[in-house]
User: What shape does this take?
Amino acid sequence: MKKSIVFTLSFVLLFSATIFAQSKKPTKIETKAFINKTNVVLLETGIKVKKNEVYTGCLHKANTIQKEARFHYRKGETRRAVNKSYLARKYSFIAYNANSKKKVPDAWRITKKEKTMITKFPTNEELKKNVSKNDKKADKESQTVETLDVN
Assistant: This one.
């Protein structure tokens, strides 16, 4: 009987620990470290692209998304900043692989600790709902804006 209680308690503690780890909001220090690591990846990838001259467009996307990540970090939105930086790192990996015969170095890959900071991205249905809401707002705003005559 004691073994079953100990087993049940250990299972509950293990299960709750994994749930807690997945929903953990990253701190400012963790977010800054994540963004800095992505900056290093972007810099090294930029050097590879400049040297080998295989332009896929992914490096430009990565730099733009990383700029948004820094913007969210300055606003204090750590989860958004980490998610944007993660996306920038993925685009940077694509550009790196196109310009190098080697694989992406293991030091640049996402660690287990960093995985706990990344949240799930919205589904396509959620994005479509947001787009339709924004389209309705844009339609209302465009109706109120007067057209200018340019002569």
